[in-house]
Design brief:
Alpha-Beta Plaits; 2 domains; single chain; about 15% strand; four-stranded antiparallel beta sheet; alpha/beta; eight-stranded parallel beta sheet; about 350 residues; 14 strands; TIM Barrel; 11 helices
Length: about 350
C-alpha cells in the first residue's frame, strides 16, 4: 500500500505519518515528488489497518498497490512521467526531446574517442557512451582500460561538451565511477546484481538499467526498485533485446517493451538497437522503430573502424552509417512529434562554416 499526501502537506504532517508507522514496526519509504509526497509501505503491515490512516491530517489517499514494484509503478500515486534533469538543464523523459547516446563499445585510445566525439557532435549528439570496464563472455576477451579509460572519456568529453555514459560492474567502484560519469550504466548481465543495485541507490547520479536477456518486464522493474528504494529516483530503463528461439539476430529487439513500460511505469525508457540486433545493418531501422514507438531515446555504438574494434565491431556503426541514421531519425522523430535533442558543438559548426566560406570563394 502507499499513502499519498496532499499537495501542500506540511513537513510535520509527513513526519507524523512516518513516525506513526515506525512505532508499529512498519517500514516505510518516503518519495518526494515535485509538489507531492508519497509514502510506500515496504513489507508486511503486521495486521495493522493502514487504510484507516486516510483520515489523518495531510493524507489525500491510501492506495492498495497490486503490483510488486511499488516505487516504479505508475499506479503508485505517480501518474506523471519522471523527468531527469542533468547539470546544464538537459532533460530526459516526459515531453523532453528524445536523446541519442552514441560512442564505442569499449574505450581503446584517445584518438579513437576524439574522432568519435567529433563525429557525433557534428550530428548534434550530446551523450557519448564508452566502456572502461567490460563484462565479456570470455575471460580472454578485451576487458577494458579501467580507470585509465575513464580518464580518457573525461578528457574528451570536456573538450567536446559531452555527457558521459559508462558502465559499473562492482559495488566498490560505484563512488569513483559516479565521479567520472554523468549517467552510470548497469549492463544486462548485472540487472539482478542486487548488492550493486543497492549501492547505486546511495548515489544521486542518474542510473541506466539495462534489461537482462532473459528478464521479464516485471523482473526488470523489480530490479529498478532496488535503486529507487535506496533513495535514488533517477533511473532510466534501457531495452536491449531479449533471448528467444530466433537466431537471425544476436537477440530479439523487444520494441513492444516501450509502450508497455510507458503504461506500467513513470520511468524514462530508451532502446539500444546495437546490442538488440548485433548487426550494424539493422541498427538504423530498429532505432527508427524505437523512436516511433515512443522511446525517450536510443543508444547506439559507433566506431572509427568497426572491423578492427576490440569489442562488438559487428554491431558498431561507421561514421557514414551513423550520419545516415541521424538524418533518418530526425525525420521520424519529427513525424511522431518527439523531436531529437540535437545541438552541434559550436567549435565544429564554426569549422564547417569556414570550410564552406572557402569553397564559395
Amino acid at each position: 500500500m502507499i499513502i499519498v499526501m496532499q499537495r501542500g502537506a506540511t513537513e510535520p504532517q509527513i513526519q507524523h505519518i512516518t513516525k506513526h508507522l515506525s512505532s508499529r514496526g512498519i517500514r516505510a519509504e518516503r518519495l518526494d515528488g515535485h509538489d507531492q509526497t508519497v509514502i510506500g509501505i515496504v513489507g508486511a503491515s503486521g495486521g495493522y489497518d493502514i487504510s484507516a490512516m486516510s483520515a489523518m491530517p495531510g493524507v489525500q489517499d491510501v492506495v492498495r498497490v497490486s503490483s510488486p514494484y511499488r516505487l516504479s509503478a505508475r499506479s503508485s500515486g505517480h501518474s506523471e512521467d519522471t523527468v531527469i534533469t542533468l547539470s546544464d538543464g538537459t532533460r530526459i523523459g516526459g515531453d523532453a526531446p528524445s536523446i541519442v547516446i552514441a560512442g564505442p563499445c569499449a574505450v581503446e585510445s584517445e584518438d579513437q574517442l576524439r574522432r568519435t566525439a567529433e563525429c557525433i557532435r557534428k550530428a548534434g549528439v550530446r551523450f557519448m557512451r564508452g566502456g572502461a570496464f567490460k563484462p565479456r563472455t570470455s575471460p580472454y576477451s578485451f576487458q577494458g582500460l579501467g580507470f585509465d579509460g575513464l580518464e580518457l572519456l573525461k578528457k574528451v568529453s570536456e573538450e567536446f561538451d559531452l555527457f558521459i555514459v559508462s558502465e559499473v560492474m562492482e559495488p566498490a567502484h560505484v563512488p569513483a565511477i559516479a565521479e567520472f560519469t554523468d549517467i552510470v550504466q548497469i549492463g544486462s548481465r548485472n540487472m539482478q546484481n542486487y548488492p550493486l543495485l543497492r549501492q547505486l541507490g546511495n548515489i544521486r547520479k542518474p542510473v541506466m538499467l539495462k534489461r537482462g536477456p532473459a528478464a521479464t518486464i516485471e523482473e526488470w522493474l523489480m530490479a529498478a526498485e532496488y535503486i529507487l528504494s535506496g533513495g535514488n529516483e533517477k533511473v532510466i530503463l534501457c531495452e536491449r533485446g531479449i533471448r528467444t528461439f530466433e537466431s537471425s539476430l544476436r537477440f530479439t529487439p523487444d520494441i513492444s517493451a516501450v509502450p508497455v513500460i510507458k503504461q506500467l511505469s513513470h520511468l524514462p525508457i530508451i532502446v539500444d538497437p546495437s546490442h538488440a540486433t548485433g548487426r550494424r545493418d539493422f541498427v538504423s531501422s530498429m532505432a527508427r522503430a524505437a523512436i516511433a514507438a515512443g522511446a525517450d531515446g536510443i543508444m547506439v555504438e559507433v566506431h572509427p573502424d568497426p572491423d578492427r574494434a576490440l569489442s562488438d565491431g559487428a554491431q558498431s556503426l561507421t561514421f557514414e552509417l551513423f550520419e545516415e541514421m541521424m538524418s533518418e531519425l530526425v525525420r521520424v522523430a519529427d513525424a511522431v512529434n518527439r523531436p531529437l535533442l540535437v545541438e552541434p558543438h559550436k567549435r565544429i559548426v564554426d569549422s564547417i562554416e569556414r570550410i564552406m566560406d572557402k569553397a564559395r570563394q
